[in-house]
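Any chance you could type out some protein's one-letter sequence along with its backbone structure tokens so I can compare the two?
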Amino acid sequence: MNKSILAALLTSALLLPMAAQAGKPQVTILATGGTIAGSSASKTDTTDYKAGSVGIDTLIAAVPEMAQVAEVKGEQISNTISGDVNDQVLLTLSKRVNQLLNQQGQQGVVITHGTDTLEETAFFLDLTVNSKQPVVMVGSMRPATAISADGPMNLLEAVTLATTKQAENRGTLVVLNDRIGSAFYTSKTNSTTLDTFKATEPGYLGLFVSGQPKFYYSAAQPIDKSFFDVSKLTSLPKVEILYSYQAQDTAMLDAALKNGAKGIIIAGNGNGNVSSNMEAAIGELHKQGIPVVMSTRTGTGYVSTKSFAIGAGFMNPQKSRVLLQLALASGADLPQIATYFDHQR
């Protein structure tokens, strides 16, 4: 064979992997810690491990299969338990996600997170990221050191979903245990099992089969979804959640207000109900323009409008808190806040 032709063929062969890599979608993983980055001395320990002890570079190196579907980069935003994710982390995540998705070539963003409060961060991003590109929240129920750890497969599926065109225009998504859910509705429903993340009434959006996402429905947005611009915010108003029970007095409500709460969420009985003492006190706050939102401690269901407070609609207490923080930060008054919880009123 002619030496020049052979040289050309060899050069082309060497360039093919580089060209293929250059043509792959770009996905950035923003890491915050949690069980997916957890470790323990015991391979059977799934409850007493140290969360947030493994860095993003180690997580990426542990799943080399991701390089086959995307050009993956990682950034460590924090490395902690999800209960310690604060306003600064939330705002940093939202701003960084919006920045990344405005960069040319960036197909999607994945956020690794502890499962305990994953739904709150996912919901916050769903309301504050303005892009059609996929934003995917992922975590695990077992630490990286456990037998049959679920983190690696969850992470691979999250990156795969972030590269999928069918995942666009669906808002923030949650991926665990092969299931794809909407951040607007998905919640953690079990303390320890792998199939914990569910949207009990609306249902899942899709699932993974042999590593590939399969959707049940075309892209759509929840009816009551709002968008809040947090690009200039450095903090969020303080909002407390109070749990309702029989013969409850107003001590915790008074303490929350004294401690600087600008709004209150009540995890109420049934359809957002409380004791007579609490109802009277909440009614007085409503007259003063202090927002109190009645959600439910039942886990699911619609909470209707009250004469003395705002009904949470389909929002559970933890998501109601996020929505009320954003509404207060935007300067909304009580009637406007009510529409954020249910536009159809």
Remarks:
- DSSP finds nine helices and 14 strands in the chain.
